[in-house]
Amino acid sequence: MILLIILGILLLIASATLKNNANPFSKFANPLRAIGFLVIALGVISSTFKQIDAGKVGVKSLYGSVQPDVLPSGLHIINPLLDVTVFDIQTQNYTMSAIHNEGAQSGDDAIRVLSNDGLEVVIDLTVLYRISPESAPTIFRQIGVNYSDKIVRPVTRTRIRDNAVYYDAVALYSTKRNEFQQRIFKTIETDFKSRGLILEQLLIRNINLPTSVKATIESKINAEQDAQKMQFVLQKEKQEAERKRVEAQGIADYQRIISTGLSDKQLQYEQIKAQKELAASPNTKIIFMGKGSAPVILSDK
C-alpha cells in the first residue's frame, strides 16, 4: 500500500524529468505521469481497507499515538495514514521445559527453585493465557508486541520461586502439588490481569527432585504399602480369632445347656421313644439282655 504510493511518486518524478529534457524518451512523459497518478490512487484506496482475521484485533496508531479503540475481526475502512498492528486474542501457551526444543526456548528452560528444606526442585510448566481485547492498545503502548518474553515468562518464573519456599521438596512432589498449583495460579493471575492478560490455566507438567530424595520417597512409599498390607493381615487374623472364639463359646453354651437342662427321667423317655421306632421296623429284632438293662437291637440283615 505505502509502497504503491511511493512507486507512484517516483513515476511522477520520472515523468517530470523526461518532459523537461529534450530526448527521444520525452514522448513517454505524459503516459508515465498518468501511470504514476493511477498507482498513487490504487495505493491510497488500498490503504483505506484493512482486514482483521478471526481471533485477532487491530490496534491503530497515528504517528506514534495509539488510538484507544480496537478493530475487531472483519473488513474495515480506515484512515490511510493509520498504522494497524494486529494482536492475537486466542488462547496462547508458553512452555518452560527441561527437554530440548519442547519449550518456547530451545535447551533446558525448566524452572529451578529452592524448597523449604533447601533442596533444588526442577519444575516443567505450561502457561495458557490470552490477551484481553480491550487491553490491546494498553499492551501495545506500555509493553509492545513481545509481551510473552517481557511479562509471561519473567512473572511466571518469579512467582513460582516466591511460592515454592513455603513447601518442602517431598510435599511439592506428592501431597501438596495441587495446593501449590492453585497458589501460584492466584498470584500469577493477579499480575497478568494488571497487565491486560487473562490467565486461563497453569499446568505443572513435571516436578523433578534430586536422586537421593527420589530414593527416599520410593522407600517411604514401599514401607507405607508394607505397613498397610500387614495391618490388613492382622485385621483378618483378628477377625478369624474372634470367629473361632464365638464358635467355641457357642459350643460351650450348648454343652452347658444340655448338661443342666436334661433330667434322668427325660433321658429315659427319649430312650423308650427310640426303642419303639426301631421295634416298628420290619428289618430289626429286639433282644433284652438281663433284667433292667438297656436292650440291644440287632438287624436281621
Average pLDDT level: 81
C-alpha Rg (nearest Å): 48 Å
Order of helices and strands: HHEEEEEEEEHHHHEHHEE
Question: Major β-sheet, in short?
Answer: 4 strands, antiparallel
Q: Helical residue percent?
A: 40-55%
Number of helices: 8
Contiguous uncertain segments of 5+ residues: none
Q: How would you describe the shape? A: elongated
Terminal CA distance reads 126 Å
Percent of residues in β-strands: 15-25%
Structural class: alpha+beta
* Number of distinct beta strands: 11
Lay out the secondary structure:
Layout: H1 2-20, H2 29-47, E1 49-52, E2 56-62, E3 65-71, E4 74-77, E5 83-88, E6 92-96, E7 111-114, E8 120-131, H3 136-142, H4 147-164, H5 169-173, H6 177-194, E9 197-208, H7 211-261, H8 264-279, E10 284-287, E11 296-299
Antiparallel strand pairs: 1-4, 2-3, 2-5, 6-8, 7-8, 8-9, 10-11
Highlighted features:
single chain, 301 residues, alpha+beta, four-stranded antiparallel sheet, three-stranded antiparallel sheet
Detailed description of the structure:
The protein is α+β, with helices and mostly antiparallel strands and 301 residues long. Strands 6, 7, 8 and 9 form a 4-stranded antiparallel beta sheet that branches. The model has no long low-confidence stretch (mean pLDDT 81). A hairpin with a 2-residue loop joins strand 2 and strand 3.
